[in-house]
Amino acid sequence: MTRKQYILIILILGSLSTISPFSIDMYLPGFPAIAEDLGTTISKVQLSLTAYLIGISAGQLLYGPLLDRFGRKFPLYAGLLVYILASIGCAMTNSADMLIFMRFLQAVGGCAGMVAAQALVRDLFPVSETAKVFSWLTLVIAVSPMIAPTVGGYMTAAFGWHSVFLALALITLLILVGIIYFLPEGKQPDPSMSLKPKAVLGNFLTVLKHPQFLVYTLVGGIASAAPFAYISGSPDVFMNIYRVSEQEYGWIFAILAVAMIGSPQFNHILLRKLTSEQIIRIALVYQILVGAVMVLGVYAGWYGKTSLIVVLFLFLLGQGLTAPNSSALSLAPFSRFAGSASALAGSFRMGIGALVSGTVSLFHNGTALPMVGVMTSCTVLGIVIYFLGQAKAASYRAAELAGAVPEV
C-alpha cells in the first residue's frame, strides 16, 4: 500500500465514521428553533437525539452479519441510501413525533458507515497497526464537532433548521461516490456465513464469549459515553442557562472539540512507550480527577460560562486516548467475525450513549449538574470494569497466542 493509498483510505474511512457525528452535532444549535417551529419543547426535541442513538445501536446489529456474509460494500451502499432518504424526510417533517421517527431511520441507515469503517480497518491493516489507524480515524472524527455545530448554527440562522438535514443528505451522497470509486473491497463475501437468526446469534455469542472483546468493549463503550452526556446537555446549558446564540454555541462546541483532536495525536507518541492497556488506565484516572473537580465546582456554583468551558475542555482531553485504544483491543482477536465484532462493539457504545443521553434529560434541573455528573460517572464505571476484567483478558490472550484456544 502506497502512502497516497494509505492516506486516501484513512480519509474515506474517516468520512464514513463522521456521518453519525455530523448527524448528531450539526442540528444541536437548532434545538430551540426546531422546538418553536414544531410547537414542542426542547426536552421533546432531545428525544430525537435519543432516537438516533437507539437507531445506531439497533442498526449495527443488523449490519454486522450482513457485512460478514455479503462483503463490505453492498450492505454499505444500502445503508447510506436509507440514510439519504431519511435525511430528506427529516427536512420535510412537520411534527416532533415524525422527526423522532425519521431520526431513527436515519440512524439505522447511517450506522452502516460506522460498522463498515471499523471492519475495514481490521481487513486492510495488520493488527499491529490498528491502534494507530484508529487514532487517525479518531482525529478525523474529532474534527467534525469543530465543523458541524458551527456550520449548523449559521445554516439554522440563515436558512432554517430544515437546511441542515438537506446538507447531511448531500454530504453523504458525496461520500457514497468516493466509496464506489476509491475504497478497496476489503473482506470478500463469505457464503458460509448464515443469516438465519440462530446462526447470527451464535456468531454474536462467539464474539461475546471472548474476554478481551467483552472487557474492552465495556470499558471503551461506557467511558466513551461521557461525551454523549455533554452533547445532550450542552444545548440547554449554554443556550438556556448562559443565553448564548446558535452561532456562539457552535463556536463553543468547536472549541471543546479541539480537546479531542490533540489527544489522538498524543496517542501516537504514547504508543511508542506504553501499551494500549496502560494508556486507557492513565486516561481514565485523569478524567476521574478532572470530573470530580468539575462536579464539585458546578455544585458549589464556582463556574461561569468561560470557566465551565475550560473544565469541560480539560475533561474531554482524555476522550481521544480511551476510544482508539479500546477499539483496537476489542477487535484485535477477530478475523472471520470482524464484522459481527464491530457491530456488537458499536451497538453497545451507541446503546449506552442513548441511555446516557436520556439520563441527562431525565435529571434535568435547570443546572449543568446532570450533564457533568453523568459524564464523570461514565469514567468511574469504566475504570472499575477495567480493573475487574483486564487480568482475565490478558490471560486469555496469552492462551490464544500459545495456540491453546482457536482463532476467531
UniProtKB/TrEMBL annotation:
Gene3D superfamilies, per the entry: Multidrug resistance protein D
Sorted UniProt keywords: Cell membrane, Membrane, Transmembrane, Transmembrane helix, Transport
Spans traversing the lipid bilayer: 45-64, 76-94, 100-121, 133-155, 161-183, 213-231, 251-271, 283-302, 308-331, 343-363, 369-388
Pfam families referenced in this protein's UniProt entry, alphabetically: MFS_1
Membrane topology: Multi-pass membrane protein
Principal subcellular localization: membrane
Major facilitator superfamily (MFS) profile domain boundaries: 9-394
Keyword Lipoprotein: no
Molecular-function annotations in GO: xenobiotic transmembrane transporter activity
A single GO BP: xenobiotic detoxification by transmembrane export across the plasma membrane
Protein localization: Cell membrane
GO cellular component: plasma membrane
Record flagged with keyword Nucleotide-binding: no
UniProt xrefs under NCBIfam families: efflux_Bcr_CflA, PRK11102.1
Entry similarity comment: Belongs to the major facilitator superfamily. Bcr/CmlA family.
Protein's name according to its UniProt entry: Bcr/CflA family multidrug efflux MFS transporter
Species of origin: Rufibacter glacialis
